[in-house]
Amino acid sequence: MAREHGGGPKIHQWDSTRNRLTWILGISGLCVLFYVLGAWQNTAAIPKSSSNLSNSGAQCGNPSNTLSSNSLDFETHHGVNINDTFPSAKRFPACPMNFSEYTPCQDQRRGRRFDRGMLVYRERHCPEKDELIRCLIPAPPKYKTPFKWPQSRDYAWYDNIPHKELSIEKAVQNWIQVEGDRFRFPGGGTMFPRGADAYIDDINALIPLTDGSIRTAVDTGCGVASWGAYLLKRNILTMSFAPRDTHEAQVQFALERGVPAMIGVIGSQRMPYPARAFDMAHCSRCLIPWFANDGLYLIEVDRVLRPGGYWILSGPPINWKKHYRGWERTQDDLKQEQDSIEKVAERLCWKKVIEKDDLAVWQKPLNHIECIENRKIYRTPHICKDDNGDAAWYKKLEVCITPLPEASKTEEVAGGQLEKWPERAFAVPPRISRGTITGITTEKFLDDNKLWKDRVTHYKHIIPPLTKGRFRNVMDMNAKLGGFAAALTKYPVWVMNVVPANSEIDTLGVIYERGFIGTYQDWCEAFSTYPRTYDLIHADGVFSIYQDRCDITYILLEMDRILRPEGTVIFRDTVDVLVNIQKIAEGMKWNCRIMDHESGPFNPEKILFAVKSYWTGEPAEQ
């Protein structure tokens, strides 16, 4: 009898295996299908034609965190009622009305505790922990949304900054005038009675202002920043600064006009800007004693000027033979002051370009090759031994010249030649191409540009007013390489790029090389500005940096202080950080929504969009 083979059982075994595989594949397919459907349901399309958010996500003021009919409104309404939709939140009370213009680190009462020498009492002196306030700074009772740019350059509402002092004190000089319910800014200044426009034309006749080689400027003692305001149409971005002094609210007026400005003073500390930041520096009767303390203040201007940069001086002592009677000073006194300034400039290796009428212009050398040789003749000021010229956060001034990067030829620009504006915004900055920024390569810079172009495109879909002139003053609290500011260059905004003072990598010099402006800042302290001065604040990873360093409640209260009513904030961070922010924001009269990352729901980073409600303080009782 023939032997039977074992083929039958093997066939049954194969069928069983095939059935199991079919079940496994079927179940796996169903899992994938339901996962995709769930993800699709949680990422509804963003409406591109509406200013209201209707995406699913966690809402401030909605404890259940479910989809609500409430939506974010990015438009302004001048005087809507407080949106009372936060019943479960721990409310922050409104501060008394005498805090309406509170500047924590430039509080004049606190400043009286400090030495008046070298204007120390007008420098930053921030409150101690027991002096911090946990209340919301109120807007004036009749606060209105500021005029849109460019009309804001010339007009501001009186109710927003109810101070007439400058219109009286500076009436002859045409700084500011009161016209009914508004201020008008004629563009005048102490040394340009014909207006800032004509004054800038006079400067342009001496040095090139319109060929793109000059992009960043600093105005020391800026008044209401008319010089910076009129430079904007020449594509020059000016960091204007002035102290909080007897000229009440001058920096507040500048920001209300939509012009970059900060509260600041050249006193005993460095300005909070990196070395080689500005293409041009300006002083128009700014009353800074440039020759005093062995030329200490002019040495600081030298630090922040780029190689080949210009310093422009008008007012005392320039053209003293004509003006000495009006200045109520003797000819000998003024001549001695000018001679002293000339000597300091010469020791800094500056070249005097020209003196014509009320203007004098000096130029910083392209490099220090000849200047080092000159130290054999001029023993002081010496070249600083500490070569970190960018260190500028609470850094004391020194009577020494900040060294420039090495150069091999006298015509070589120390640190590298910059492109002209506007190419400069996207060209690789020399600090990166030369490898002086640790971990940042040309490829990373180019990738960062593309990243922020895509992100701003995403923001536009969510916040349509971003492209329609709704926002003017923008702050980036953690600017990194300045990619956010670069992506906004085609819109009518300017960006205050902030690099946290404790950052592992200092990139503020890169931002200036791109033709943008910014400052160092420790966000455990208040910013050097008045309340209600920014329309849009961008906070990328800020709270992950600071959550273990200080109470983030105070950072959010500071953001509320500097944000205008109905202003917008964009947070980018991890979910747990954003949830903590959301809990605090519920009590600050903010409407907000946590949304997925622009790349989709699988990215652990999320975005929180918030809008500050409109509310004002109560008028004082008669």
Automatic annotation (TrEMBL):
Principal place of residence: endoplasmic reticulum
Keyword Transmembrane recorded: yes
Single biological process term from Gene Ontology: methylation
Pfam families in the record: Methyltransf_29
Transmembrane portions of the chain: 21-40
Subcellular location(s) of the protein: Endoplasmic reticulum membrane; Membrane
Keywords of the record: Glycoprotein, Membrane, Methyltransferase, Signal-anchor, Transferase, Transmembrane, Transmembrane helix
Membrane topology according to the record: Single-pass type II membrane protein
EC number(s) reported in the record: 2.1.1.-
MF (Gene Ontology): methyltransferase activity
Entry keyword Transmembrane helix: yes
UniProt family annotation: Belongs to the methyltransferase superfamily.
Protein name listed in UniProt: Methyltransferase
